[in-house]
Amino acid sequence: MSSKILKFTLNGEPVEIAVSPEDMLVDVLRDKLELTGTKKGCGKGECGACTIIMDGEAVNSCLVPAMKAMSASVETIEGIGGPEKFHPVQETFMGLGAIQCGFCTPGMIMSSKALLDKTTSPTSQEIKKALAGNICRCTGYVKIEEAVMAAAEKMREKQ
Amino acid sequence: MLQDYLFPETISEAVSFLKSNEGQARIIAGGTDLLLDIPEGKIKTSCLVDITRIPELSKITLEDGVISIGAAVTHNQAANSELIQEKAAALAQAASCVGSYQIRNSATVIGNVCNAQPAADTAVALVALGAVAEIANPGGTEYVPVEKMYAGVGKSTIDSASQLVTRVSFPAAQKKQGTAFVRLHQRKALALPMLNVAAMVALEGGKFLWARIAMAPVGPGPVRALSAEEILKGAEVTPEVIEKAAQSALEQANPRSSALRGSKEYRTSVLPVLVRRALEQAVANAGSSCK
What we know:
The complex is a heterodimer. By secondary structure, chain A is an alpha+beta fold.
């Protein structure tokens, strides 16, 4: 199998890694770069658990060939915040109980962040549209929507 | 097995990559369908030629009243384009219905057409808009109406191992012209259509100058409601005329029964309702009403 050198920016840091043309970005992130925060659910672009942000847009990393990340800027859940300093949307998901088992959460948060990067005054409809590709099988979506709204408010306050 | 992944910088480079690989290479744009078909063995290829970094293919342009959409334009880019929303509302609406937000950020409009699913939302809209595809062949450029790009169910006339659709073009809606897209689905998101209909109308003095209606899935690809179009031509813009045209749409429709997305009987009953709504909305989009 021929391998290619993939160069891209991952969570603000330059990365250089050998990949196969067959590799999907989700597998490179999880298995080669050991960033397992991004989850692989259906592998078919239907559940949204693998959502990452590439060049500012939320995409399903299970349907993105790793090679498509060439020269791109990729953000994963690990890059947007952590215990030292959480992103507002991470804080509100925790604070408002928008989590049950947590498997869908990284994808939900990345879709939410992509939306909030574009607007900090989203309508309920815009939130639903942005999150329609992220499936939660534990519970409903009400708390999740509330958490995104609350995060938007926090971000507005900081502006 | 995939051995290579290439990023051509120009259209001619893309086509020559295909040619030099003699059928073993294939075009990839968004890849959201292709990357499911490759592991399943439905498509065999050893090299992917990624066209999304060819600058001219990322553009949506308006020139001399003609809108063109490049092969790398995603569903979200089309849906969010003010030009498309204003001058080709049916396409903006159709593009916003496909898959999920993430899918629409990757998947391209032209990919949707080339994947040739019978009810590909943007293909239905493009047929109603009278769109023509520009195709780069090894021997030169060819122009084919989107309506003629279906070779069968799930089969495109385009061979992505030798050809590249570079853009689709259609006339921007002018004054007193309107377009609309309506869709019936089981969920509001991430659902394939049970039925979808797109219409474009041109009005003058309270009459239809002409209308173009595309409906799906009632055949291998988007099907023109030719009887309805004939009824509308020159007719008064009234609810009665629209209803009569909507009923006649069944003459060209041959829906199949789907275990998931409606029986033949159900689709047959509902189709005229969707055609009527599409026409009403297209008339409204043209700045008129059917009173």
